[in-house]
Amino acid sequence: MKYEIAIIGGGPAGLAAAIAAYDAGCRSILILERDNQLGGILNQCIHNGFGLHTFGEELTGPEYAARFAKQVLDRGIEYKLNTMVLSISEDKKITAVNRTDGLIEIEATAVILAMGCRERSRGALNIPGFRPAGIYSAGTAQRLVNIEGFLPGRRVVILGSGDIGLIMARRMTLEGAKVLVVAELMPYSGGLKRNIVQCLNDFDIPLKLSHTVVDIQGRERVTGVTIAEVGPDRKPIPGTEIHYDCDTLLLSCGLLPENELSRGMGVTISPVTNGPVVDESLQTNIPGVFAAGNVLHVHDLVDFVSEEAAAAGRAAARYLEQGAQSGAGEINVTFEGGPRYTVPASIDPKRVSDDLVIRFRVGGVMKNRRVRLYLDDEVVVSRKRPVMAPGEMEELKLTKEALAAHPDLKRIHIAVEEA
Amino acid sequence: MYDVIIIGAGVTGCAVARYLSRYQGKMLVLERAEDVCCGTSKANSAIIHAGFDAAHGSLMAEMNVRGNRMVPQLARDLDFPFQMNGSLVVCMSEEDMPRLRALYENGVKNGVERLEIVDSKRLHEMEPNVSKNAVAALWAPTGGIVCPFNMTIALAENAYANGVEFRFNTKVTGFTRGSGCWTIHTDGGDFQTRYVVNAAGVYADVLHNMVSEERKLHITPRRGDYCLLDKQTGGFVSHTVFQLPGKLGKGVLVSPTVHGNIIVGPTAIDIEDRDGTNTTAAGLDDLIAKAGISVDNLPIRQTITSFAGLRAHEDHHEFVIGEVGDAPGFIDCAGIESPGLTSAPAIGETVAELLREKMGLAEKENFIATRKGLLDPKTLSREEYQALIRENPAYGQIICRCEQVTEGEIIDAIRRPLGARSLDGVKRRTRAGMGRCQAGFCSPRVMEILARELGVSQAEITKCGGASRLIVGVNKDSIGEVREG
Asked: Which of these, A312, B88, B204, B254, has the minimum number of CB atoms within 10 Å of its CB?
């Protein structure tokens, strides 16, 4: 099989990328999805709050996914469900498998990586204690509750205040479970402010910052969890232990982009984002291989996943027309005062055909800041930010016009400064 | 009336059952857990030791060296993963060289073949990540690694194929001695047998002490914490890298696994709780600190899971194998700690031989000496895999993404004799859930397949039997207005 563009993953990123690539003129697109329907993890996110930026209304996850899936179907874009990509070679030959076609090999001119992310597991967190039933990542519990209608537990402790954990605190409460506490290792939450208000405060669920799980009890099923306060070194402080009798521990301790396929094909991965290092076209170090969505860096809002993925789709379509463009004029985006990384990591002004969005996250909570984007020594964007937090993604728009006004650009720099 | 009842379906009990199944007779394995391989056999270093470590002249040394020689053929016969990757005992200072040489000499006396002391240069050529401070190492090319789950399961399945019965979820509570026979009391009723084999792991002393006054055994559960690293770290070391044993045991090893991960462990903490398989923060911290001694830049941040296992440490650090003096017909396999996994085939053969002699057992004419493991599509050629999916489409459906395990393999694991009944049972047989996401994505789907295959509701599916239910109800079932019934 040969396609111009193969898209790995039919979640929000893959769907938006496919639609944008089609609308940019590409008619040979294949989406490969491992699950039994398009939409990815959105299908289990039955709460509302999706689509405010894209559609100007609040949708549930499945509704948001359905709008994109419909656009894919309307355009007649091809897709394969229940299809697992096993490997991709550096020359973009994809090996995948499913029940009906068996092993398939797809030759693609361009590949868009849109595999999403996974949750950090108990094992990766090295939480001590027994290993009984009743320990779930928040997303696994979300699937059990929202898709299958099963209650994974009745008395629940949640470790980690990532958005899925916060959402699940509310969901478990609504389904009849008692959520005793949400413990967060860091002195600030990893989730969106609105989720803390709507999912914890509105249900009187306590959030204990600077706390972690130090023991899990129960040989067969969880019978209790002990949490303790941590010091500035994030190590538990003896004597601060609090015990909870519970049958469930949910973990919402961070998301990890799933880049095993990317690594396998030789894509360079950033140690900060755990996602591919990309240029202004969201292209990886391999020409014609693009990445978008949570596989690239973990987002907070799906609207921005869609927006980013659409840019990747357009870039892939452009690649089909123009082929690989020389990377001679690439400028690395530099930063100071807070950002941990930027996407894109580098920009070649000559290749920029649209306005660019530069996204980043900061490493800690910061108040009264101003974010400035410099082209050489000139400030082209300056935004006041009363609060910046690691849980919320920041973005800056770099316009085509601003770039055009700097023909011999040497430096693209983001500074987070005291306001 | 049984001829032999074996208590314990760990690797020792299953090995005894397998070697005994060559002979005619009515045999039964009793196991308190819901599956084979639920105790020490499932949580250990997965090492086939060469045999240089156990004291010369001990039963432990004899069984180790014999077991080491038996495993390669057994792995072929019973189709379980084994690799002779060789082991290195790393010496960190010139001062310790006499102890390294003593270990070499002990190994030679034990009959370990091809032992060699390699200098620092050669060592670092063999293992570039071994600590730059290492001065030499004892190289044992006959050391190996194995899948302890599939080794145990293979022995059990083969014993079952040869007529040995298995009864799970059955806990032994006591014994009554009759004339020429024993009654074993359990929470599932009484069983009569001519001979009892005590292969009860960390409980072997408890059972032994129920029947013997003459010599009391004392076993201490010695807990070992482990970390398992992502397959991305595969190749960090290719040999099993031991630290030179000191007063606190064998030290911490860093080893590849047969599946391509890196395993680090174990610690050694004596505890009282015979089911105390909980890891502790102190234990894991200790492990991480010790693991860094023999290798440089261990990628410990790539840990995908940590766990603890219990060694059945007998006070004299020696295997206790044989008929109990004041309890004729009661055969101990007690104190089987490291190198117990390696020794299991030798112990099985020894005990089977002992029983054959005592009971005058005749060989079976139709003994089945081989067993075929689960079909792993990853071992097939493209064409073979394609044909397999055409014949059985379930092999085209990946359920566990991280380990790329198909629905076909999971169904096979459930349907085969002594098949999986729980999430952990499927995991041990297929590796579904053993990868980097640690069952985050696949557990709901494996639960669904288990429920369908076993003909029960998903609410009845457990992690590992007993009360380890994964689901406690359905949404809103505790809220009055919508409660059904």
From this structure: B204
**Contact check, Cβ <8 Å, B281/A128:** yes
| CATH number of the structural domain spanning residue B127 | 3.30.9.10
Residues of chain A with pLDDT under 50: none
The residue type found at A7 is I
Residues B278 and B387 in one domain: no
Confidence check: pLDDT of B339 > 80: yes
Residues B123 and B226 in one domain: yes
The total number of structural domains in chain B stands at: 2
| Domain coordinates in residue numbering, chain A | 1-118+255-325, 121-253, 329-419
pLDDT for the residue B249: 61
What are the structure tokens assigned to B422, written together? 């729980």
Task: Determine, for residues B472 and A153 on separate chains, whether the beta-carbon distance falls below 8 Å.
Answer: yes
Is A86 in Cβ contact with B404 (below 8 Å)?
A: yes
Contact between B148 and B15 under an 8 Å Cβ cutoff? The reply is no
User: Is B390 a member of any domain?
Assistant: yes
Does B392 contact chain A (CB < 8 Å)?
no
Identify whether residues B289 and B408 lie together within a single domain. Answer: no
Are A228 and A211 spatial neighbours (Cβ–Cβ below 8 Å)? yes
pLDDT digits (tens, 9 = 90+) for B86-109: 999 999 999 999 999 999 999 999
User: Is B239:B263 a contact under the CB 8 Å cutoff?
Assistant: no
* Joined tokens for residue A243: 């015990």
pLDDT greater than 70 at residue B37: yes
Contact B284 A128 (CB under 8 A): yes
Residue among B390, B441, B468 whose CB faces A220 most closely: B468
Listed residue (B299, B303, B333) closest to B318, CA to CA: B333
- Asked whether B192 and B402 are in contact (CB, 8 A), the reply is no
Residue B258 domain flag = yes
A1-118+255-325 belongs to CATH 3.50.50.60: yes
pTM for the model stands at: 0.96
Which of B275, B308, B341 finishes a domain? B308
Please answer yes or no on whether B458 and A148 come within 8 Å at the CB atom. Answer: yes
- Report the amino acid identity of residue B365: E
Probe site for chain A from B171, B279, B380, B464 (most A CB atoms < 10 A): B279
Distance CA B265, CA B139 (A): 19
Residue B412: give the domain boundaries: 377-460
Question: Is residue B280 less than 8 Å (CB to CB) from chain A?
Answer: yes
Q: Are residues B408 and B285 in the same domain?
A: no
Q: What is the pLDDT of residues A86-126, one digit of tens each?
A: 999 999 999 999 999 999 999 999 999 999 999 999 988 88
What are the residue ranges of helices labelled H in B21-129? 59-78, 97-110, 120-126
- The pLDDT of residue B151 is above 60: yes
Q: Which of B389, B468, B478 sits opposite A176 (nearest CB)?
A: B478
Output the pLDDT for position B485. Answer: 43
* Predicted pLDDT of residue B247: 58
Q: Is B192 on the interface with A (CB under 8 A)?
A: no
In a domain, B250, yes or no: yes
Q: Is B177 within the bounds of a domain?
A: no
CA B272 – CA B220 distance, rounded (Å):
7
Q: Which residue has the tokens 């990886």?
A: A284
> Both B123 and B234 in a single domain?
yes
Q: What's the pLDDT tens digit per position in B207-259?
A: 999 999 999 999 999 999 999 999 999 999 999 999 998 655 668 999 999 99
Share of chain B above pLDDT 90, in %: 96
Q: Which residues contact B156 (CB under 8 A, 6 or more apart)?
A: B9, B14, B17, B18, B29, B36, B37, B166, B418
Dump pLDDT digits (tens) for B176-200: 999 999 999 999 999 999 999 999 9
Q: What is the ipTM of this complex?
A: 0.95
When the candidates are 3.30.70.2200, 3.90.940.20, 3.90.1170.40, 3.50.50.60, the CATH number that belongs to A121-253 is 3.50.50.60
Which tokens belong to B461?
């599916």
